[in-house]
Structures are given as C-alpha cells and as structure tokens.
Amino acid sequence: MKRHLILFLALILTLFISSCGGTKEFTKTDSRDIPEWYLTTPTEENYLYAAASATSRDMDLAISKASTEARAKLARTLEVKVNSMQKKFEEEIGTGENSEYLSQFTQATKTVVSKEMKGSQISKKELLKDGKNWRAYVLAKYPTGSAQKAFLKQIESNKKLYTRFRASEAFNELDNEVYKNKEPTAKVKETKVVKSIPEVEETVISDDKKMIVNYNNFIFELTNVKYENRNITISLIVKNTSEDDSFLKFWISDTRIFDESGNEYIASNCRIANTVSKDSWTRLEKKFISGVPTTVEFVFKKVSSETKKISLFSISFVSDDNKVEFRSIPIDSNK
C-alpha cells in the first residue's frame, strides 16, 4: 500500500512539473520560429529600430504590450543620441554661467522624445502560440530625420538658446544630418587624365576683370582660382551690406562648377573665415558681420586636367531657389 502511494505521488509530481514547464518547453521546440529580425535587430542609416516581445491570453493585448515596449526602447535610443549631441554642445560652451542653456537643452530633449515617439511605426509583427498564451514579436522603426527636425524646431522656439546653439559645431553636425537625405544625386562626370598635371596652377582675378554679384544685401566678389593635384579651390570675398548682422546658409552639396566641356563637379568642402566644413557636411551656416569682408572658399575634387576654364560656378543656398553665379572663369591661360 505504501509502495502504491509513493508511485501515485511520483506520478502527480511528474505531471505538475510537466505542466509548469510548458513555457520553457515551447521556447526550446519553437525557437526556430522566432523572427530573425527579433534575434538581430536591423540597422539602417536613416532609421532607428527596436524589437520587443510580450505574452497575453488575449492576442491583441499581446501585440499592444509588445508595441509599447518597442516604442519605449526607441525612445531610450533617441534620448541617447540627443544626449550625445548635448554633450558636444556642453563641451563647447562649458558649464557655470551657461547652465541655463543646458537646462533648456535638456527640456527640449525630453519634449521631443515624449512627443515624437507617437510617429513611430510598427513595421513587422508576428504571433506564436505560447502554451495557453499568445506571444507577439514586434519590430518598431522611426526615421531619425523626423526626430532631428523636431528637435531643431523645438530649439528654434527658444530664440536665446537657438542663437547660442547655432554658433556651435554640434549645431552644424545636426543641421547637416537633417538635410543629408536631400543631397543631390548627380554624379561627377570625370575625364581621363591624358597629360601630366602641374603642381599648382593659380589664377588671380585682377582689378580690371573683377567678378562681382549682388545677392540679398550681400556682395560676392570672386578673387582667386587655384588648381592643384586635380582639385580646384575657388575663393571669394563676401560682404554684408545691410545694417544688421545676417546669416548665410550655403548648400555645399548643391554648389557646383561646369567646365568648357560640360563636365560637372560638386563642391566637397566649404570654408567661411575660420569655420571649415567636414566631408560629410552638406550645408554650412555662418553669421556675416555688417560691413566686414569675409573670405569664403569652395573646394572641388577630381577635376579633369583638360579643364582650362570654368564655364559656370553656381553657389546654392538653403531655402532659397536663387543662386549666385559666375561665368567664364579662367583657370590658367598657358594650360
């Protein structure tokens, strides 16, 4: 009798362990059914991604819980990215008397993160049976450009902070990231080099051949064209003729030259006074002080050695369809 009781208790214990271990058994047998995008979250330059999983006996509730968690992960990732930018800003302006700016910056970050996650999308979802429950796998994504634009807009609403922030390198990096997707897709047409290239060829625009263009209370005077190692550097003097200091926002990736054969080259770098763009920057903004002549340079790379003249030099500005254009610019008359 005692032996039968022991066997009965052992059977009950076995059944209990089996029923309690249902979820673990599901994970083992069905792990091959877990979506690949959940195991390895996708990465893409212009999007943030986050994957999450949740269970519920109600199918819709499982999806809702997983979606909420995925969006929370996106928010944390976005906050990390913006905080990184704030750190760069803080390094530039320092602390102490500038603590007001940092406090406003932090508040702008929180506002954007809390509001913008509503615009995130559930790009993928998958349901599996997990014992008596439903398990939902969800992949959420959010375009980084939208968050960056929203952050810029939030900063702009605070004029004092925006004025201080726009003068920083952190602003330039953010500003160029926002407009990175708008880079013109035109490809540089190259001509095969068929003769040796001089070390330096330089053309200085003489006083009797001044090239001057007026643009929105600014005077653009082309002063120098230098050809070196298949790179052309064009220098200008830009003067703000208005009574007030004004900003100019150059669109580097839409500033270009055409040679006499129709070959087209897009600017790769821009320098305004002592501010120099990086290779990845598409735009560069600078304050021009009233009445102060300021040097501006554009660099064009991999220019054909056959080029003897720039037929058109076109400078573009952000949020303005008008351009500053110079024509028939000599490079080297002896070439």
Helix content: 25-40%
Give the total of domains.
2
Overall mean confidence score, pLDDT: 75
Overall 3D shape: elongated
* pLDDT < 50 runs, ≥5 residues: 15-29, 181-199
Number of strands: 16
- Percent strand: 25-35%
End-to-end separation = 113 Å
Radius of gyration, taken over Cα atoms and rounded to an integer in Å: 30 Å
**Helix/sheet category:** alpha+beta
What characterizes the major β-sheet? 7 strands, antiparallel
Order of helices and strands: HHHEHHEEHHHEEEEEEEEEEEEE
Total helices: the number is 8
Describe the structure in brief.
Helices cover 34% and strands 34% of the residues. The chain is α+β, with helices and mostly antiparallel strands and 335 residues long.
What features would you highlight for this structure?
34% helix; Immunoglobulin-like; seven-stranded antiparallel beta sheet; 335 residues; alpha+beta; 16 strands; four-stranded antiparallel beta sheet
Report what the structure shows.
The chain has two domains: about 30-180; about 200-330, Immunoglobulin-like. Helix content is about 35%, strand content about 35%. The chain contains eight helices and 16 strands. The strands form four sheets. Strands 4, 5, 6, 7, 11, 12 and 14 form a seven-stranded antiparallel β-sheet that branches. Strands 10-9-15-16 form a four-stranded antiparallel β-sheet, with no helix packed on it. α5 (about 100-115) packs across α6 (about 145-155) and α6 (about 145-155) crosses α8. The longest helix is centred in the first third of the chain and has 35 residues, at about 60-95.
